[in-house]
Design goal:
Blueprint lengths: L1 H11 L17 H4 L59 H5 L31 E3 L4 E2 L11 H4 L8 E3 L5 E3 L21 E2 L4 E3 H24 L9 H27 L6 E4 L11 E7 L2 H31 L16 H21 L6 H4 L2 E3 L6 E8 L10 H21 L11 E8 L1 E2 L6 E5 L2 E6 L4 E4 L10 H5 L1 H6 L3 H11 L11 H9 L2 H13 L5 H33 L4 E6 L2 E6 L8 E3 L3 E2 L3 E6 L2 E5 L1 H4 L5 E2 L21 E2 L4 E6 L7 E6 L5 H11 L6 H27 L4 H15 L6 H16 L2 E3 L4 H5 L4 E5 H5 L5 E7 L18 H9 L4 E2 L5 E2 L2 H8 L4 E5 L2 E4 L2 E12 L4 E8 L2 E8 L1 H7 L9 H10 L2 E10 L11 H4 L4 E9 L6 H10 L3 E5 L4 H11 L7 E8 L5 E5 L17 E6 H10 L1 H8 L2 E5 L3 H13 L4 E5 L5 H6 L2 E5 L10 E3 L5 H41 ...
Parallel strand pairs: 27-38, 27-43, 38-42, 39-41, 41-42, 43-44, 44-45
Antiparallel strand pairs: 1-6, 2-5, 3-4, 7-8, 8-9, 8-10, 10-11, 12-13, 13-14, 14-15, 16-17, 16-18, 18-25, 19-24, 20-23, 20-25, 21-22, 21-24, 26-45, 28-37, 29-30, 31-32, 32-33, 33-34, 34-35, 35-36, 36-37, 39-40, 46-47
Length: 1455
């Protein structure tokens, strides 16, 4: 009741003249503007009063529509309200004419708005006629003569009237009676009687009743002074803050004791990094254990955190108890009788809890604070401190960032001091991130271990610290040991297997199965949601509880959306990692079945068809087919062979013995042993050390590519904090009421500066694009790659199977004497030389599956299939015609030597055939056997796109046993036999894809193992190199380390491109030349690499080298390949796209199940769409925050606020629907010539956001100025400075105009940002957004132009006949202004509507035409000038380096 009293007291003590035009600054007073002598009400010209002919609905009916809202449990009765003063009015015309009001205009049969018995002046004239503020007296006898029923009804002086409690008069003569339930609105106990309501000019009311108003104000003031006050030094309060202080002091004393005063010597030690590629990182391990004291302190801290939430809830309830909010709270004890005191207590708890809880977010976890340091031997937890390398190179030299860094360093230093921790390395300056890992005890071995980043670390008693639990079967063992009969028969002993299990642990990838609940808890545990939690609490008291509900819904919705998308991503990854099954192992000489998790390195296992759980090396097999698509993306099954006994003295290496290696995550399709034995293999690695584990570990530890956004967001946050501080100060200055009420206004402004949905926009945009890619049969295992795809500048393609069809077409085979014939002229099998037929039929690595289908490389299959007389008998023999040829030994294709070879038995001879690239074969052949034009012929074929292989032969006459023969023993002194020619057909979609990439400003290049000339042929045919371009090839490196550069057209010597590159010329080079440049001149390598479109004769490592170098030097790269030898490059690129039918491939974040390169453009278009959508939503959220912050400041200036439904829409419905529908726009049909920006401080983003913000602010100013210049408004301004009762502050014209104009800016701004430029589909194709836009536009326009129950939802264009607050009340509630209406003239409503439409048009025009067209072109020109300046100042390599932003380029980001 107190707030209502304060509001009423302020209202009735308003002076005759409002202070100023805005209540402050205008020098034109009401008296000056409308100087007039007292005008008697009866002297008004009758024609000037146009009362609205409004039908009065009977709201007392139980069937009325608003009763549908009754009984909603969360609704509170605001406070005692005036009951609806409805009386049965007779329709007798004479009786009606007798009433004083109706006597004003009998001809028009006008009547007043009868709701609450208050009058509404329909004329919009000044001065305004209204029901005078109530006159409150001690008894009816004290009522002045002018405030009696007789004076109010002088026209019917002979009638008898009864004064009702609410100030209305019941005509007893007409049979009327007062409603017994009516309550007096006079709130002061000593002046509780309401005199009869009088209708007069508003100023006249004060001339007549000012003394009564003063008495009432004094009465209320006296009551306020006499209210019981709570003593904050009382026992109850001391019981709260004294324990809090003691617990806080104990916490910091514990930290100091644990880390500084009494640290345990030897608790720290160096931890060896077991992450591949990061072995040099310095990690620290520190032992900790639980103690009773620490556990007690930990429990007390948790209790205090919960206590803050409980106290805030308690004080919120106490506020509404003090406010007499409703029957539900009547039985609760009133502790605070003073509204200010309860709000002050709330604020103290809020501020203390906010700071205290945020301080506890600094440590890794609260629990970790209360663990006692100890020796590793006693540790139950191990804290692993790993360096975090973050370098913001873009702005590191700017003063503001240096200042920001200084502040952050100071903050970190302060936090480290109070918690007595060390988070920065004194030597390197790197900050450490500490993770607390729980130490577990192995049930089988009793060993103590923990997991960190999927790696197992075990306690080593000899070193007294934890060491990596790494064990390889290759340690102190050779291939010969593995192949020994004893090893194959006995395997490991049970004791040895147990020992090894204690070291490496179970064969699992340590990743807990994600749950939706866990994802939600993890998301809401972030510091941002703690901030959100306290922001929501500020809305709970002060009659804003409904906004606390709305804000909670908004924040929970945003957090849930992020958590769900995160859960989906985690679950997809978990499905890749989890594996369940059994394995058959040989232990103690017996074959037994064990759970696959119990297998250890060194176990001999029986290989059976199915999923592979660990890395293995094949020891014995006859036929073994493996599907490696899930791991490498390889399309076709791969045949595996046993380890070669010739390498018995060597140590196994998975790379050199690739053909004998089966990796975890692959699938064995077929396995068959020989007579009397099974397919046996030895386990080489388990757990996270397998090939699958390494890849998944990289995925888990992968940090999303750092955009400029990631650097700038800290600066933006700092700017918002500065803005927050400024606006809070402004609001506190504007609010002239008690500082307790001003505090709420200030915190509301602070909360809107940092919008609650801001962290969700990127996650939502990525999730939507990921779903759309899946619909296009493109799977995504790492959704963060989608945003990176939006910035791709360089695309690398494998040739065979990617740009060209997977299969090769056999064309011809030519002997050395037939090389002069055209390779494209095909003849029948009979025309192929018999020696070549023999070579084709035996020199391969083919095998057959159970169905008899050929399995092996495409080139081998095509060559063998060309011989109809050839047939595979088994893995050891082949038939050519009627002759059966037995294999003695086969060697797989080697990427380094570029050859494969075979020894066959033919008669009494051991014949050797070697097949490989012409360049490689020529090195191994006797010069005399090579045709003189061999090199020319090879180049000619390569230029014409012919894939050519050469075959040579010899007879093996060595003394070594065949099982001891190595490749180097037979690939020497060969006799050239001939060449085999294949044609690789271009995929029909390739030219269109390459063309679209070029139009999208994405450079393309080929990485191929084929001849560089063949690559050039495909590049020109596909459009990667324009047909009219000349090509210079870096062919070879001479013995004196000089690169030979030749013209591709005629093989003539070309000039050194390091000196100058001729016009209309591009480069191509071999892997050998690339490696030479990279080794001796890295700057030149990257400079020339940017001009190179074909990299030929590349090994898999060469491909990785090329991609990695471009990544290192700043280009956002994409690699597309069909797996196999491309998997390294796929993994090295920012965006890897594997063309594979494996639904879940870990080698690349994207997998095209349709195996088409159109997936490249699909991914890039979705990436650009996701990035543009994320920034559109981001700008909208910032705009929403800025518009609302401005609204809050303007409200503070006028001492007003919005009504309930206004807040519900502005803070809930509009932001959620607009922000979440903006990213639903589909990707553009084609790639744009530019990439979307990733900079929130770049010219594009700033011009867009700031421009729309300026336009919005301009229209707000124009709307207020237009309102200010309305004659009817001059006498209807809001003049109260009392903000204690927020429920009355929205019933005025200022609020109406601000809400209509700025409220629609929530919609019009979103409409402007929905323009996707060229990255997203057309504006109208975002159907969900368009639907919401049209619905909310219709709502806003209808509320603007109509005056009925609909507009009264927002208290707009509303009078007392329609005033129902549907959020916080289901009962009609009178308008709380002096004129009982917020209805605006129709003409002015049209003006406001025109402003809203103009605001929409100007916003869209600015965004579509100015930002996305004019300013975009200007920005491009400026960027081009800067690039030219860089190029003129330095070499190409140096210029590149000056543009780098780790790890991206500045020019890429600005674009």
């Amino acid at each position: 009741m107190l707030a209502f009293r304060r509001g009423f007291a302020t209202a009735v003590t308003l002076s005759l003249a409002f202070e100023a035009v805005l209540g402050r600054n205008s020098n034109v007073s009401r008296n000056t503007a409308f100087a007039t002598s007292r005008i008697d009400f009866t002297a008004i010209e009758l024609d000037s009063i146009k009362n609205p002919s409004v039908a009065v609905s009977d709201r007392s009916s139980e069937d009325s529509w608003w009763h549908g809202f009754d009984g909603i449990p969360f609704l509170l009765s605001r406070r005692s309200k005036r009951k609806l003063g409805k009386k049965a009015i007779t329709t007798n015309e004479a009786a009606v004419a007798s009433r004083r009001l109706d006597a004003l205009d009998m001809e028009q049969q006008m009547h007043r708005s009868l709701a609450f018995g208050d009058y509404v002046d329909p004329t919009f004239n000044c001065p305004a006629t209204t029901t005078c503020p109530l006159v409150c007296v001690n008894s009816t006898d004290d009522c002045p003569v002018d405030a009696t029923c007789a004076s109010a009804n002088s026209a019917v002086a002979d009638h008898e009237f009864e004064l009702c409690n609410d100030g209305t008069c019941a005509d007893k003569t007409l049979g009327q009676a007062c409603d017994a339930e009516l309550e007096s609105p006079c709130s002061c106990g000593g002046l509780g009687v309401t005199c009869a309501k009088q209708i007069d000019f508003y100023d006249n009311c004060f001339e007549q009743f000012q003394n009564f108003y003063d008495d009432n104000a004094e009465c209320i003031a006296n009551e306020e002074e006499n209210l019981p006050q709570v003593n904050f030094n009382g026992v109850a309060f001391k019981a709260c803050y004294i324990p809090f202080i003691i617990i806080t002091v104990l916490m910091f004393l514990w930290c100091a004791f644990n880390q500084r005063i009494a640290p345990v010597a030897g608790s720290n030690a160096v931890l060896e990094c077991a992450i591949k590629g990061k072995e040099s990182e310095k990690w620290i391990q520190t032992g900790y254990k639980r103690t009773f004291v620490g556990a007690v302190l930990h429990g007390l801290i948790i209790i205090v955190q919960l206590a803050f939430q409980g106290l805030l809830l308690f004080l919120t309830i106490q506020y509404y108890v003090q406010q007499e909010a409703g029957p539900a709270l009547e039985n609760l004890k009133v502790i605070f009788h003073d509204e200010i005191q309860v709000l002050m207590a709330f604020q103290i708890v809020w501020m203390t809890g906010f700071v205290w809880c945020f301080l506890l977010k600094y440590p890794s976890s609260i629990r970790s604070l209360f663990l006692r340091r100890c020796l590793p031997s006693d540790a139950t937890y191990v804290a692993v401190s790993a360096p975090v390398q973050i370098v913001d190179t873009l702005y590191e030299k700017k003063c503001i960032v240096k200042f920001l860094g200084f502040l952050l360093d100071g903050f970190y230093g302060f936090m480290d001091f109070i918690y007595s921790i060390k988070s920065e390395d004194a030597d390197t300056g790197l900050r450490y991130k500490t993770t607390y890992c729980k130490v577990r005890i192995d049930e089988k071995t009793g060993s103590r271990y923990f997991y960190f980043r999927m790696r197992r670390y075990i306690y080593d008693e000899t070193e007294s610290k934890f060491v990596p639990g790494r064990l390889s079967a290759t340690e102190e063992s050779t291939i010969g040991n593995w192949l020994s009969k004893d090893q194959l028969q006995h395997g490991l002993s049970s004791h040895e297997a147990t020992r090894r299990f204690g070291v490496v642990g179970p064969n699992v990838l340590d990743l807990k199965k994600p749950t939706i609940l866990g994802s939600i808890v993890r998301e809401f545990s972030k510091p941002f949601y703690l901030y959100q939690n306290f922001m929501v609490w500020t809305w709970a008291p002060y009659w804003y509880y409904y906004m606390a509900i709305v804000q909670t819904v908004v924040r929970v919705t945003g957090g849930m959306v992020v958590a769900i998308f995160q859960y989906i991503g985690d679950m997809n990854l978990y499905k890749l990692m989890v594996a369940e099954g059994t394995a058959e192992v040989i232990r103690d000489g017996e074959l037994m079945t064990v759970d696959q998790t119990d297998v250890v390195p060194g176990d001999i296992v029986r290989v059976t068809p199915g999923l592979v759980y660990f890395d293995m090396a094949i020891l014995k097999s006859q036929r073994l087919l493996v599907d490696e698509s899930a791991l490498t993306g390889e399309v076709h099954p791969v045949a595996k062979i046993p380890l070669d006994p010739a390498n018995s003295m060597l140590v196994y290496n998975s790379k050199t013995c690739k053909s004998s290696t089966i990796s975890a995550g692959t699938t064995v399709l077929e396995s068959a042993g020989g007579d009397g034995y099974d397919v046996l293999a030895i386990v080489t690695q388990t757990g996270s050390f397998t090939a699958k584990g390494e890849l998944l570990s990289d995925v888990l530890s992968y940090e999303r590519h750092q955009f400029k956004f990631d650097t700038e967001v800290k600066l933006v946050l700092f700017i918002l904090l500065v803005e927050m501080a400024i606006l809070v100060s402004v609001v506190l200055h504007f609010i002239e009421d008690h500082w307790v009420f001003a505090w709420f206004y200030a915190v509301f402004v602070a909360g809107t500066c940092l919008p609650p949905l801001l962290p969700t926009v990127f996650v939502v945009s990525v999730g939507i694009s990921c779903k759309r890619l899946q619909a296009q049969r493109i799977t995504c295992t790492d959704s963060t790659g989608i945003l990176v795809a939006g910035k791709v500048k360089k695309a690398f393609f494998d040739k065979t199977g990617t740009l060209t069809e997977q299969g090769l077409s056999f064309v011809s085979a030519r002997t050395s004497n037939e090389l002069g014939k055209s390779a494209m002229i095909a003849h029948g099998e009979a025309d192929i030389d018999p020696i070549l037929q023999l070579g084709l039929s035996v020199c391969h690595t083919l095998t057959t599956n159970a169905s008899g289908d050929l399995i092996g490389p495409a080139v081998d299959r095509m060559g063998f299939s060309a011989l109809s007389s050839a047939r595979m008998v088994d893995d050891h023999s082949v038939m050519l015609g009627d002759e059966t040829i037995k294999y003695l030994k086969r060697f797989e294709f080697d990427h380094h030597s570029m050859t494969q070879s075979v020894i066959i038995q033919r008669g009494d001879e051991a014949v050797v055939f070697v097949k490989g690239s012409p360049e490689a074969i020529s090195k191994f052949c006797a010069p005399s056997s090579l045709p003189s034009d061999f090199a020319d012929h090879a180049r000619y074929c390569a230029k014409n796109g012919i894939y050519q292989l050469a075959i040579a032969r010899s007879t093996y006459t060595g003394s070594k046993e065949l099982n001891e023969v190595q490749r180097s023993d037979i690939e020497v002194d060969l006799t050239f036999t001939g060449c085999i020619n294949f044609q690789n057909t271009m995929k029909h979609e390739t030219p269109a894809v390459i063309s679209e990439l070029r139009e999208g400003n994405v450079e393309s290049a080929i990485l191929t193992g084929d001849n560089v000339l063949t690559g050039i042929y495909i590049a020109k045919k596909s459009g990667i190199i324009e047909p009219n371009k000349n090509v210079i090839i870096g062919a070879t490196v001479s013995c004196d380390d000089v690169i030979e550069w030749v013209n591709a057209s005629d093989d003539s010597e070309a000039g050194d491109p390091l000196v100058s590159i001729p016009e209309n010329t591009v480069l191509a080079m071999t892997g050998e030349v690339w490696n030479h440049l990279l080794r001796y001149d890295p700057k030149s390598a990257i400079a020339l690499g940017n001009q190179t479109f074909v990299f030929g004769r590349c090994t898999p490592n060469d491909k990785v080298s090329v991609v990695s170098t471009f990544v290192q030097y700043g280009d956002i790269t994409l690699m597309c390949g069909d797996g196999g030898n491309d998997c390294g490059a796929l993994k090295a690129a920012h965006v890897g796209i594997a063309l594979s039918d494996a639904e879940a491939s870990v080698v690349a974040p994207f997998t095209s199940l349709d195996k088409t390169i159109t997936s490249v453009t699909d991914v890039l278009k979705e990436g650009r769409c996701a990035l543009a959508s994320a920034f559109a939503s981001y700008k909208y959220m910032l705009m929403y925050g800025q518009v609302e912050s401005i609204n809050q400041v303007v409200n503070a200036y006028f001492s007003i606020t919005f009504s309930e439904w206004c807040w519900v829409f502005m803070d809930g419905i509009w932001p959620i629907t607009m922000a979440f529908s903006l990213p639903l726009s589909k990707a553009a049909a084609k790639l744009s010539p530019k990439r979307p920006t990733a900079s929130i401080l770049g010219p594009h983003t700033l011009s867009s956001a700031c421009g729309v913000l300026a336009i919005n602010f301009l229209f707000l100013v124009i709307a207020l100025l237009l309102l200010w210049n309305q004659d009817w408004f001059q006498c209807r301004m809001w003049g109260s400075k009392d903000v204690s009762n927020v429920t009355v502050l929205g019933d005025n014209y200022e609020t109406s105009v601000i809400f209509l104009v700025t409220g629609y800016q929530y919609i019009s701004s979103a409409a402007a940002f929905n323009f996707g430029y060229t990255y997203r589909a057309g504006w109208f194709k975002n159907y969900v957004f368009v639907f919401f836009f049209l619905v909310w536009t219709a709502f806003q326009f209808t509320a603007t132009m109509t005056s009925n129950a609909f507009s009264c939802i927002w208290r707009l264009n509303c009078d007392n006949d329609n005033a129902v607050r549907f959020v916080t009340s289901t009962e009609p509630e009178a308008l709380y202004n002096d004129f009982n209406t917020t209805v605006m003239p129709t003409s002015f409503r049209g003006t406001i509507l025109g402003l809203m439409i103009a605001n929409l048009i100007l916003n869209c025009t600015w965004e579509y035409f100015i930002v996305n067209r004019v300013l975009s072109k200007v920005n491009d020109e400026i960027a081009g000038m800067k690039s030219s300046q860089h190029a003129s100042k330095d070499s190409a390599g140096d210029a590149l380096k000056t543009e780098l932003v780790e790890p991206i380029r500045v020019d890429a980001e600005v674009a």
